[in-house]
Structures are given as structure tokens and as C-alpha cells.
Design goal:
Blueprint: H1 3-20, E1 26-34, E2 47-54, E3 72-73, E4 82-107, E5 110-133, E6 138-153, H2 160-198, E7 202-210, H3 220-239, H4 253-275, H5 288-305, H6 308-315, H7 322-343
Parallel strand pairs: 2-3, 2-4
Antiparallel strand pairs: 1-7, 4-5, 5-6
């Protein structure tokens, strides 16, 4: 057989598989979920007051705030049931210029050893974290004397004297920048930790949803399921918009009814599609390339519907493709975590 004929046959086989073979055609959606606290506060805690105190005289903090999701933020400690406080005790830095060797180009083929310079600035903040239950007279968190340090090193400066000059001119401004970065990082960690322990934050978990593709088969049902999930995400996002939304979102009756109908339709569509599965067959609407995605998507629909046991059961049926098996394991860990937190309430 001539090479040209062989290439033509291979091209025809590829084109037939493209036209008739089922393809997942996935796109990721951020699936929202409300995370319950691992250490729930006392039931009589409803309000909180937060503040950032800076005892350092060498830099001023930005307007970063601490927010405990699911509780009402008040403007004075006298109104508060809970106090959340981040205290910067002090800030310090060290810096120095130093010599650095490099190869200096003389011409296209010749380099000589030369000496230039660099400089470094290392800045540290020391801070403490507190959460105080004012209503029940309990100190819930007291972490004192925590350090965060970061270092800046300049690019090579080909003249050491210039490196010394740049060091002297820039070290203070660089240290202040690092101080602020360190403070923001400490605040971010503390805020995440407080919400993990006590709050009700809205988070998102990204999942690839199959929409299907192929000329021979109709995948409009999976497209409809995908559109439903996108709309569910938007409704929940709207319900939790604003700086201080209610713990379980601000849902109207219309929004609640739409959420219910759309999740139920998704579950029905995906369950029916799964029933069509024919293993080890390429020219079929639902085959080996699709089935694992559908089980993960069904799990996500159950997850949104609050049926965590069925969400976990669906994930255990993902058994064919390595990538989807790993994704199912990751998602199942999230489902278990959400379930355990709910049980702790």
C-alpha cells in the first residue's frame, strides 16, 4: 500500500471518530458551599467587634479588616458579644550591601572576572492574635509573639559603590513595603483561621461539568444541566453579596424555589444520562469518556441539594479514568469535611 493511501485511510478514521465519538466537552464551574465552623461558638454569640492595633512606630498598617462570616459586625466593643483582635507588637529590619562577582563582557568572545554589588533587606513583624468571648467570659484564642520575616535581595549592580548608595537610599522604603506585606499576610492567615474555627464563610469548589459534543448524538440535556448549575451559582452569589450578609444568605422565596427546581432538574438529567451508559463502546452517546464526569457532576448536584451521603456515593462510582478518579477523591474529601462540620453543630 502506498504511503499516500495509508495517510488518507488514517485521516478518514480520525475524522469518523471525531464525528461519531462522544466527547465530554467539559468546562469548570465554581460550585458554592457554606462552610460550617469546626469549633462552633456558644449559641448566645451574635455580634462581634474586630480591630487591628499597631504598636510599631516605623510603619502604618493599611485599612485591612478582620471579618467573621455569619455574625453581625458592630462598631464598638460595648455592643459586641465577641472581640477579634490582631496586635502588631513591633517591627524591625536589617540590611546590608555586599560584593558580588560576575563575568564582564569585553567583546563577543571575551569575558573577564569583575566585582559589583548587591544589597539585601530583611524585615520582621512580631504580632499577637486574640479572640475573646465577652458574653461568656472566655479567652478562645491567645497566640502571642508570632514572627513573620521576608527578605529582599537586589539585582546585580555592576559597581559596588553604586550598590552601597542604592542600599542607603532604598532600604527604609523597601523595609516598609515588606512590613506591610508581612502584616497583610499575618492578617490573612488569622482571618482564615478564625473563620475556619468559628465562622460561616461562603467558599467555591471548582468542578469540570460535561456538556457533551458530537454530531451524531444530542447533548442538549447536558447543556441544560450545565446552564442550571451556572444559574444556581449566580443565585447563591447574589444571596451572599454585600459586606455583611445573613449567615445563611439573603434568599427570597422566588430564589429558593428556583434553586430547588434547578437542582432537582440537574439530578434528573444526570441520572437519566448515566442510565444510558454502555461500557467499552466508542460510538455511543454515553460511554467510557463521559461516565466518570457524569458521576462527579451528579455528586455536585447532590452536594448543592444538601444530600451529602448521595454525593459521596456518586463519587465512589468513578472508576475508569485516572484524572477523574483523582478528582473524585479530592471532591470526596471536601464532601466529608463539610459533612463533619455540619455534624459538629
Amino acid at each position: 500500500m502506498k504511503i499516500s493511501k495509508l495517510i488518507l485511510i488514517l485521516n478518514l478514521l480520525v475524522s469518523v471518530n471525531f464525528i461519531y465519538g462522544q466527547r465530554p466537552n467539559t468546562k469548570k464551574i465554581a460550585v458554592p458551599y457554606l462552610q460550617s465552623p469546626i469549633n462552633p461558638l456558644n449559641k448566645n454569640i451574635e455580634t462581634y467587634f474586630s480591630k487591628v492595633v499597631n504598636y510599631s512606630t516605623v510603619f502604618q498598617t493599611s485599612n485591612s479588616q478582620l471579618n467573621l462570616k455569619g455574625y453581625k459586625k458592630v462598631s464598638s466593643i460595648g455592643e459586641a458579644d465577641l472581640e477579634v483582635k490582631f496586635v502588631i507588637n513591633n517591627a524591625s529590619f536589617t540590611s546590608k550591601p555586599f560584593k558580588a562577582k560576575y563575568k564582564k563582557k569585553v567583546n563577543d568572545s571575551t569575558y573577564i572576572d569583575a566585582e559589583g554589588g548587591k544589597y539585601m533587606v530583611e524585615a520582621t513583624i512580631n504580632f499577637s492574635e486574640y479572640v475573646n468571648d465577652l458574653k461568656n467570659d472566655k479567652l478562645l484564642i491567645s497566640n502571642e509573639g508570632i514572627n513573620i520575616s521576608n527578605q529582599f535581595t537586589s539585582d546585580l549592580i555592576k559597581d559596588y559603590a553604586s550598590a552601597v548608595k542604592q542600599h542607603n537610599n532604598n532600604r527604609s522604603s523597601i523595609a516598609i513595603r515588606i512590613f506591610n506585606e508581612n502584616a497583610n499576610e499575618g492578617l490573612r492567615r488569622f482571618n482564615n483561621s478564625v473563620n475556619d474555627k468559628f465562622g460561616y464563610p461562603l467558599y467555591y469548589y471548582y468542578i469540570a461539568f460535561a456538556r457533551g459534543r458530537g454530531k451524531k448524538f444530542d447533548y442538549s440535556d447536558l447543556s441544560r444541566s450545565f446552564e442550571n448549575i451556572e444559574r444556581i451559582k449566580e443565585i447563591i452569589k447574589i444571596a451572599f453579596s454585600g459586606s455583611n450578609p445573613p449567615r445563611y444568605g439573603n434568599f427570597s422565596d422566588e430564589m429558593t424555589n428556583e434553586l430547588s427546581s434547578r437542582t432537582e432538574e440537574c439530578i434528573k438529567i444526570l441520572e437519566n444520562a448515566i442510565k444510558e451508559y454502555i461500557p467499552k463502546k466508542k460510538r455511543t452517546r454515553i460511554g467510557d469518556k463521559m461516565i466518570d464526569h457524569l458521576y462527579i457532576n451528579l455528586s455536585a448536584a447532590y452536594f448543592l441539594n444538601g444530600n451529602l451521603n448521595k454525593a459521596s456515593e456518586s463519587l465512589k462510582k468513578v472508576k475508569i479514568n485516572k484524572g477523574e478518579i483523582k478528582e473524585a477523591g479530592r471532591f470526596n474529601s471536601k464532601v466529608d469535611d463539610v459533612n463533619n462540620r455540619i455534624k459538629a453543630q
